[in-house]
Design a protein that fits this description.
Blueprint (H helix, E strand, L loop, with lengths): L7 E5 L5 E2 L2 E2 L3 H10 L3 E6 L6 H10 L9 E3 H12 L4 E5 L2 H9 L3 E2 L11 E4 L7 H12 L3 E4 L5 E4 L2 E4 L1 H13 L4 E2 L6 H10 L6 E5 L2 H10 L3 E5 L4 H4 L12 E3 L10
Helix pairs in contact: 3-4, 5-6
Length: 266
């Protein structure tokens, strides 16, 4: 696989570039080489807890120059898609700062947990590390009354330096178990919409693009769905994800031990 032929390199963050607050060895060197080669770099994450500016700041603290415009999160994409389909809707959120900020900036009216008067048009669910029974109850009540159930993503886990932690999929599953019937829309990977947004933004064709991720079920599948090339790394959840590759299904174009091994192909 000749990576020099690609112009757009799309990197997942958690499990590929870093684990929690620890940079994966070799990631910085790979990104520096791509920059010297004048490649277009984007960072794509299902993690909806932080704003794009906060993700860029985190990378900068790790010694990786990054701009908010290079970051595409499931929170940002959720806000953009819902703005087109449900403009000015009232939204109840299970999620953190990144999701709340993106939806506010997109013009949605955010319904608080204490607001019992405002009808809820949309219930949007992302990773919420302060999830409570009361939050789930509010969301369930709104959905039963007719609110649309939207998930930023359904990742079951979040890779960190301490190991795997529960992901947004656990929040979604809790509402599913309560009889909500599953979200009407899941914005994050493996939905190709975030990759398609990047291709549109960079004015590049799928053939010129590659995604590097640690999840077969999200990163690789999103790449396949968007018709771009795919690389699976064994860091993060990668080693476990290899077992999910079906003999008859689509396969990554390349499997590497770590993002650092990209240097051998550049």
């Amino acid at each position: 696989m000749n990576l020099k032929e690609f112009q757009v390199f799309i990197f997942d963050l958690d499990g590929v570039i870093y684990l929690g607050n620890v940079l994966i060895p070799g990631a910085k060197e790979v990104l520096e080489k791509l920059k010297k080669q004048k490649k277009t770099i984007f960072y794509l994450t299902n993690n909806a807890t932080q704003t794009r500016a906060k993700f860029a700041e985190k990378l900068q603290k790790m010694g990786i120059p990054a701009r908010p415009e290079q970051i595409v999160t499931s929170a940002y994409t959720t806000a953009q898609i819902l703005q087109r389909t449900y403009p000015k809707a009232s939204v109840y959120i299970i999620g953190e700062e990144g999701l709340i900020t993106e939806l506010k900036e997109a013009g949605f009216r955010i319904v608080s947990e204490e607001d019992m008067e405002t009808p809820v048009d949309l219930v949007v669910v992302g990773l919420d590390r302060d999830l409570t029974y009361r939050k789930l109850a509010k969301a369930l009540t709104a959905i039963v009354k007719g609110a649309k159930f939207i998930a930023t993503n359904i990742d079951p886990t979040l890779p960190t330096e301490q190991g795997l932690l529960p992901g947004a999929g656990c929040m979604v599953a809790a509402l599913n178990a309560a009889g909500c019937g599953g979200p009407e829309m899941v914005i994050g990977k493996p939905n190709p919409c975030m990759i398609e947004f990047i291709l549109e933004k960079s004015n590049q064709l799928p053939a010129a693009s590659v995604i590097i991720g640690d999840r077969y079920s999200t990163d690789v599948q999103a790449g396949v769905n968007a018709h771009i090339s795919t690389i699976l790394v064994k860091t993060g959840t990668g080693s476990q994800e290899i077992a999910k590759i079906s003999p008859s299904g689509p396969k990554p174009d390349l499997i590497l031990e770590s993002v650092a091994n990209l240097l051998e192909y550049l």
